[in-house]
From TrEMBL:
ABC transmembrane type-1 domain residues: 90-297
Membrane topology: Multi-pass membrane protein
Protein name per the record: Multiple sugar transport system permease protein
Highest rank taxon of the organism: Bacteria
Keyword Transmembrane applies: yes
Similarity remark: Belongs to the binding-protein-dependent transport system permease family.
Keyword Ribonucleoprotein applies: no
Subcellular location: Cell membrane
Keywords: Cell membrane, Membrane, Sugar transport, Transmembrane, Transmembrane helix, Transport
PANTHER family linked: BLR7065 PROTEIN (PTHR43005), SPERMIDINE_PUTRESCINE TRANSPORT SYSTEM PERMEASE PROTEIN (PTHR43005:SF1)
Origin species: Pseudarthrobacter enclensis
């Protein structure tokens, strides 16, 4: 039998393996390319464009619209020295804490926990109406809330016999907190329902047999199993609530800027006042705040898993 020629045998197999690996990477990149293109188009490019506009005096009209000038960090300095920005930031934090961290999380868990103890028919009806609040278009939802909070013929005044209380004028922040809680509770309910379904029934039964009450069962059995879901839910609804624009349809940031949360403040500054450069700078500040919030939650989630 003739000896194998140089460059054949085992070394040839290694080359083939390398070719296969390279081909596999090329195919993987081909599958990822559409997703990377979409991420670049809808996330990376808008973020870079926002960064650029925030460094200019760009406006929607006038000479600055045609020939914007580079102003560096002046927009950021102006934002951080503007009382309106800090008023809006404070209102946003109260809005997020009240409607997301407290309202949606607590109400969503309460509904999910209660539904584990009722018949399936009752659970189906309750979940249907909670989901209905989530899937109804924002314009329709706003109209319904106008009808309920109206000063003269509102449903809430009729139910509480409070006369002609102008809820949207006297309690604008509280109104949008309750409004956003009502709209967004369905997500928390669904997530917690899924989490509670994963709690082993045998552990709950063992806790009942040793005389543990409802609070002890939740603290020692339920919560350790759903802690990760609690963090995930809180992270998602915090970011969504921090960036939501829907309350604009109800109060438009008024009266007297008492419901002027950051998304509405940026909209009014950039589009109503035409200061698109300054609005972009505040948008980037919002992005940074979102990243800080996400980092904190993800670190807590990582510590929990470890």
């Amino acid at each position: 039998m003739p000896a194998p020629a140089a460059g054949t045998g085992p070394s040839r197999a290694v080359v083939d393996d390398g070719d296969v690996a390279g081909l596999g990477k090329a195919r993987a990149m081909a599958f990822l390319a559409p997703a990377l293109l979409l991420i670049s188009l809808f996330l990376v490019f808008p973020a870079l464009w926002t960064l650029y506009l925030g460094l200019t005096n760009y406006r929607l009209s006038g000479s600055a619209a045609k020939n914007p000038q580079f102003v560096g960090v002046d927009n950021y300095i102006n934002a951080l020295s503007d009382d309106r920005f800090f008023n809006s930031l404070g209102l946003t934090l109260l809005f997020v804490f009240g409607s997301a961290v407290i309202g949606q999380s607590a109400l969503g868990f309460a509904i999910a926990w209660t539904m584990t103890r009722v018949r399936k028919s009752v659970r189906a009806v309750v979940e249907f109406f909670v989901l209905l609040a989530w899937i109804i278009p924002s314009s329709v939802t706003t109209f319904l809330w106008y009808a309920m909070l109206d000063r003269s013929n509102g449903t809430l005044n009729a139910m509480l016999s409070t006369g002609n209380t102008a809820w949207l004028l006297d309690y604008p922040l509280q109104s949008i907190i309750v409004f956003n809680t009502w709209v967004g509770t369905a997500f928390s309910m669904l997530l917690f329902s899924s989490a509670l379904a994963s709690v082993p029934p045998s552990q709950l039964e063992s806790a009942r047999m040793v005389g543990a009450g409802a609070w002890a069962q939740f603290r020692d059995v339920v919560f350790p199993h759903i802690r990760g879901h609690v963090l995930t839910n809180t992270l998602l609804i915090t970011l969504w609530t921090f960036n939501t624009f829907t309350p604009y349809l109800l109060t438009a940031g008024g009266p007297d800027d008492r419901s002027n949360i950051l998304p509405i403040f940026i909209y009014r500054l950039a589009l109503n006042d035409g200061a698109l450069g300054q609005g972009s700078a505040i948008s980037l500040i919002m992005i940074i705040i979102n990243l800080v919030i996400a980092t904190v939650y993800l670190r807590l989630l990582k510590e929990r898993k470890s």
